[in-house]
Write a structure and sequence with these properties.
- The protein is of the alpha/beta class.
- The chain folds into two domains: about 140 residues, Leucine Dehydrogenase, chain A, domain 1 (Rossmann fold, 3-Layer(aba) Sandwich), CATH 3.40.50; about 35 residues, no CATH class.
- About 40% of the residues lie in helices and about 20% in strands.
- It is built from four helices and five strands.
- β1 and β2 form a beta hairpin.
- α2 packs across α3.
- It is globular, with a radius of gyration of 18 Å.
- Belongs to the Glu/Leu/Phe/Val dehydrogenases family.
- It catalyses: L-glutamate + NAD(+) + H2O = 2-oxoglutarate + NH4(+) + NADH + H(+); L-glutamate + NADP(+) + H2O = 2-oxoglutarate + NH4(+) + NADPH + H(+).
- One of its GO terms (molecular function) is glutamate dehydrogenase (NAD+) activity.
Length: about 180
């Protein structure tokens, strides 16, 4: 979808956004929205497929989806990011839903981004706090969300090492 927004200096900027829904056989689709200059359809499609597999392997009743906007979030002001997020939500609000596709933060997005999506989506569909995960705690978000991914990596790594009779102490890792 094309997302045109006024910039703070009065000029217009145009960005391209994507939302790919891969599979809903196990339940509503789930996946992050990333803001990065190199976001493109093939990458978003591959990430949506990976989300399907991640939820299946973890036996979580969700399917896979992913989204993104080709932009450099560090080069946009907070008000420009808000306008971009709201326009993107206006373009995809009929594609997402609490029973169909639930966005979450990813690279370049955060709890504030999810709050804007929640607010904009609610203008079309009524107040819907379950439309996103990763939202601020005061909007119903989960305490510890920002550290959850890293903590999960540690737990999974420790479980794998335990299978081989090793401990994490003294080992070096590269994580991509």
């Amino acid at each position: 979808v094309e997302c045109r927004i006024p910039k703070d200096d009065g000029s217009l900027a145009s960005f391209v956004g994507f939302r790919v829904q891969h599979d809903n056989a196990r339940g509503p689709m789930k996946g992050g929205i990333r803001y990065h200059p190199e976001v493109e359809p093939d990458e978003v499609n591959a990430l949506a497929q990976l989300m399907t597999w991640k939820t299946a392997v973890a036996d979580i009743p969700y399917g896979g989806a992913k989204g993104g906007i080709g932009c450099s979030p560090g080069e946009l002001s907070l008000s420009e990011l808000e306008r971009l997020t709201r326009v993107f939500t206006q373009k995809i609000h009929d594609l997402i839903g609490v029973h169909t596709d639930i966005p979450a933060p990813d690279m370049g997005t955060n709890a504030q981004t999810m709050a804007w999506i929640l607010d904009e989506y609610s203008k079309f569909h009524g107040y819907s706090p379950a439309i996103v995960t990763g939202k601020p705690i005061d909007l119903g978000g989960s305490l510890g969300r920002e550290a959850a991914t890293g903590r999960g990596v540690v737990f999974a790594t420790e479980a794998l090492l335990n299978e081989y009779g090793k401990t994490i102490s003294g080992l070096k890792f590269a994580i991509q």
